[in-house]
Write a structure and sequence with these properties.
The structure is a single chain. By secondary structure, the chain is mainly beta. It has a domain at about 60-270: outer membrane lipoprotein receptor (LolB), chain A (Clam). It has helices at about 5-20, 100-115, 195-200, 345-350, 385-390, and strands spanning about 115-125, 130-140, 140-150, 155-160, 165-170, 175-180, 200-210, 210-220, 230-235, 240-245, 250-260, 280-290, 300, 310-320, 325-330, 335-345, 355-360, 365-370, 375-380, 395. Strand 9 and strand 10 form a beta hairpin. The protein is globular and about 60 Å long.
Length: about 400
């Protein structure tokens, strides 16, 4: 299996959990989908094995876990309202300030990235429900985070400053990578003029959730190339008590609901120690950095992009299991992002017929094809047509000729 295929398989399983509260990848969401869990080589699932899940949040079974320690938060997925209403049809809440909905998104993002908090939430996607715990601390300018699965695989993501360590006990693997210090496991991308051109942002309701007053904000896509959001934002703390990712018709693709959430003034260092015993585990390091072009390097670019998308980042990334660096391009519209990996094929692979592959699980879509002897893999929390569009438009450009002078 190629590096890109391994990347897709694990992306489809964990891309959402890796950016659990937000919207990977992100000026966050910008690199939202480059979590290196996706590249762990031990996973053997191929694209055509990804199952389709048609269950909805209404039919998802309640996760059986004790909430005795959770103060006043008893909400479950079963209490969620019907999710068939189109985001576009939601009536706009009357407010004297036209910018109020976007202001609430900004307040929420500041709360997620600057507050101390400890919460347990249910995460519904692809017909499955999982319980996770998120711990976030900002101390002396350094961000520490821990995201842990409380059931199933028992995976944990622990971040200390720029270092992110991913514990995969089901694969007996630990993956370590470096991230920009300002990039968080959580957070919502900033809303700007570019975002407003492709999304309709409204406050549609004010309601109570978990005994808290909340503002219900919708971020509705104006075309078929991106998903939208519904967010229940606490009036007092600006924390998102409930988040839904929706398609353009308003159907829920993914849902997060906090069962317990506290905002402690102090969180000890011990809260960021993994419970996973790593004896006998394989340790992998994912190195990435700016590309180092040479005279023979091809520059990959998209000839066309969906409306509003632009290239936001380019790097050369060495993924576990790959001997050569892989070109990594990130395209974003300000909220949604797509990671594209370009991997040179080996000679024996080049002789095989190129068969495009696609897969989807929950909110994550992936598409892989071969262009000019290179495997092109696009992954993102966007509709399937978007990753197909972007991957199919990639072309290699020859670098300008380098003239040599004799001295």
């Amino acid at each position: 299996m190629s590096t890109s295929e391994r990347f897709i398989a694990l992306t489809l399983a964990w891309a959402v959990a890796g950016a659990a509260l937000a919207g990977e990848a992100s000026p966050e969401r910008t690199p939202a989908h480059k979590t290196s869990l996706e590249s762990a080589p031990a996973h053997k699932t191929s694209l055509d094995q990804a199952p389709a899940h048609k269950t909805s949040p209404e039919s998802a079974p309640a996760h059986k876990t004790s909430l005795d320690q959770a103060p006043a938060h008893k909400t479950s997925l079963e209490s969620a309202p019907a999710h068939k209403t189109s985001l576009d049809q939601a009536p706009a809440h009357k407010t004297s300030l036209e910018s109020a909905p976007a202001h609430w998104l900004e307040r929420m993002n500041r709360a997620l990235t600057t507050r101390n908090y400890d919460g347990t939430f249910s995460h519904w996607h692809g017909g499955r429900v999982e319980m996770l715990r998120i711990i976030h601390r900002v101390q002396d300018g350094t961000v520490s985070e821990r995201l842990a699965s409380l059931d199933g695989s028992g995976r944990e993501f622990i971040r200390a400053g720029p270092s992110l360590t991913c514990y995969l006990p089901d694969k007996r693997t630990v993956l370590v990578e470096q991230r920009p210090p300002q990039e968080s496991l959580v957070g919502f991308p900033a809303v700007n003029d570019q975002t407003a051109s492709f999304y309709d942002i409204r406050e549609v309701n004010r309601t109570r959730l978990n005994r808290r007053n909340t503002h219900v904000i919708t971020v509705s896509p104006k075309d078929e190339y991106r998903y939208g959001y519904r967010l229940w934002i606490d009036d007092s703390t600006a924390m998102p008590l409930k988040t839904q990712l929706c398609d353009r018709r308003g159907h829920v693709i993914e849902q997060i609901v906090f069962a317990s959430l506290t905002l402690p003034a102090h969180i000890p260092d011990s809260a960021f120690k993994s419970d996973v015993s790593t004896a006998g585990f394989q340790w992998l390091r994912n190195e990435s950095g700016p590309p180092a072009p040479t005279a023979a390097t091809l520059a990959w670019n998209a000839m066309r992009l969906p409306p509003g998308f632009r290239m936001a980042a380019r790097s050369a990334q060495t993924l576990p299991g790959s001997a050569d660096p892989v070109d990594h391009l990130v395209f974003t519209d300000g909220l949604a992002s797509v990671s594209v990996f370009v991997e040179a094929q080996r000679r024996e692979q080049a002789d095989q017929p190129a068969v495009p592959e696609s897969a989807a699980l929950g909110s994550s879509s992936a598409f892989s094809t071969v262009i000019d002897g290179h495997k092109i893999t696009a992954v993102g929390e966007v509709p399937p047509d978007t990753v197909r569009f972007i991957a199919s438009q990639l072309k290699a450009e020859e670098p300008p000729a380098v003239s040599s002078r004799r001295h």
